[in-house]
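Subject: Interface between my chains keeps coming out wrong

I've been trying for a while to get a sensible model of this assembly. When I model each chain on its own everything looks fine, but I need the whole thing in one frame so I can look at the contacts. Pasting all components below, labels as-is. Any help appreciated, I'm running out of ideas.
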Amino acid sequence: MVTCKPYVVGIDCGGTNTVMGIVDSRGKVVAKNAIKTKAYIEFNDFIDAIARSLSELFEQVGGPQMITGIGIGAPNGNYYTGTIEYAPNLPWKGILPLADALYERLGIPVAVTNDANAAAIGEMTYGAARGMRDFIEITLGTGVGSGIVINGELVYGHDGFAGELGHVRIRHNGNRMCGCGMTDHLECYCSATGVARTAREFLATRETPSALRNLVPEEITSKDVFDAAMAGDALAKEIFDFTGRIMGQAFADFVAFSAPEAIILFGGLANAGDLLMKPIVKAMEENLLQIWKGKIKVLPSGLASGDAAVLGASALGWKAKNEN
Amino acid sequence: MVTCKPYVVGIDCGGTNTVMGIVDSRGKVVAKNAIKTKAYIEFNDFIDAIARSLSELFEQVGGPQMITGIGIGAPNGNYYTGTIEYAPNLPWKGILPLADALYERLGIPVAVTNDANAAAIGEMTYGAARGMRDFIEITLGTGVGSGIVINGELVYGHDGFAGELGHVRIRHNGNRMCGCGMTDHLECYCSATGVARTAREFLATRETPSALRNLVPEEITSKDVFDAAMAGDALAKEIFDFTGRIMGQAFADFVAFSAPEAIILFGGLANAGDLLMKPIVKAMEENLLQIWKGKIKVLPSGLASGDAAVLGASALGWKAKNEN
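Reply #2:
Try treating it as a single job with all components included. I did that and got this:
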């Protein structure tokens, strides 16, 4: 008898919310739920809460026997070990046995990876990278993450942590401290917080009039800069230009590494459209070796933004069947 | 009947010499020959000369029926198409059908890749990377090349040209023009010619006494700097320090990409030993994310230096059997 398990679970484990959804083979989220990550002092209570929430969702699709596997995207998630390792934004410290703990409670195979890798797998399964065998997913949020696909496979590296492109060095003037403790990383400039930092820097060092001058500098967000730029504000546009130029220069280096078909942008800032895309492509093209000029696509994510993180994680669930 | 073809051919196609050898399964070069690359005005004459040389070599091992395949490492060699594309250091321009032309003459499967990729495959098959599934080979010669292995497979990328790590940007001051037409690439600093450039720069801008001041600046080679450093010359040591530091910083970025088990150095400068290794490892460690500190090996090549390029190319020959 062939057992038919038509669904997977995707869990997006974030510092604030942990969102979970049941997803069908065409990438439709058929049931969804969320819990507050920080409401659980003990890691085991957090896992119990996920298991309870999922059990409720399972009833909506005919029970747990309908689920092929569970995929989880979590900060510092390690695919090889199924653990979360020293995640700075989560309430529990050390090495957390995420996959094992959830498998114990539910008896369904669980695969774990970091959120950016999950986004890349989602992009390949349901999004803009369908049919691609070589691409790089760049996630632009509070930080900058990445998931690298080569030959149709996600790159995990020797230890499961490959693809930390937010932490490549893109300047050497020591001007910006990164959350990781070093300086001048891509993330310091091209994350949402990096854009806000650039705004404060430009406001302090340039004379250009700008609507951003009406805001309290410490409270400026990348959304404020985006809104101002869309309204035609010259300084705000300059900030996006600067951000995109740095990103494009970095992308040229990434191309020299893996010669991808495309680089795909995922997350809030990716929605800035031409404001960001134009300077990215211009700077990338200027810095590409001759053999790649005009050949590398830069694309926005094709994942529906509301469900993207859950979808990405869920795509890992299809493969989880052989992991445990 | 099982046909036993116990040998492969490795061809190292360089700007000056094209060296070819017959290699057994344990990585021993059993017969060897060379021709002058620049002696052939027409590409077809060059291919005829290779075919003639190989036919002579074949007689020494029992004829062409003893050969599984031919692997060629050539500048701008494309694995997917078997062609050489626009190689600046070869006498023939445009796209050259290397694999097809040689297969036509000899009837033996031919696989082509660039010289650095060939070195990586050789390293994995016969050298310091035996048993590794994730490593990066950095070739230090007139230029800086690289071959990247992920999950036990060489990374060719979408178009066959992946792994041009000599052309990632490692400074942003525009001080050094690269052979490719852009500035501040790794190759401008860490190739043999880069070391010589640093020597000229340091001699012009620093007061430190040095044996290198007795040489004509334009004629200084990396070998001169190496000899001076080994003799205790302070400025020469500083040059190696500077070179190694830049390399180590770049290596930290490469680790963020593919999280390799090791980075392996191949070619002339790799023989500088601690002079180069110490500053490389120091700078790499300073720039690695916490999760990788103390975990990434930096190793010299394990390929016997005289035959390394031929061995590397020959390793590709074992796989060539399925390509044509």
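Reply #3:
Confirming on my end. The first strand of chain A starts at residue 7 and ends at 13.
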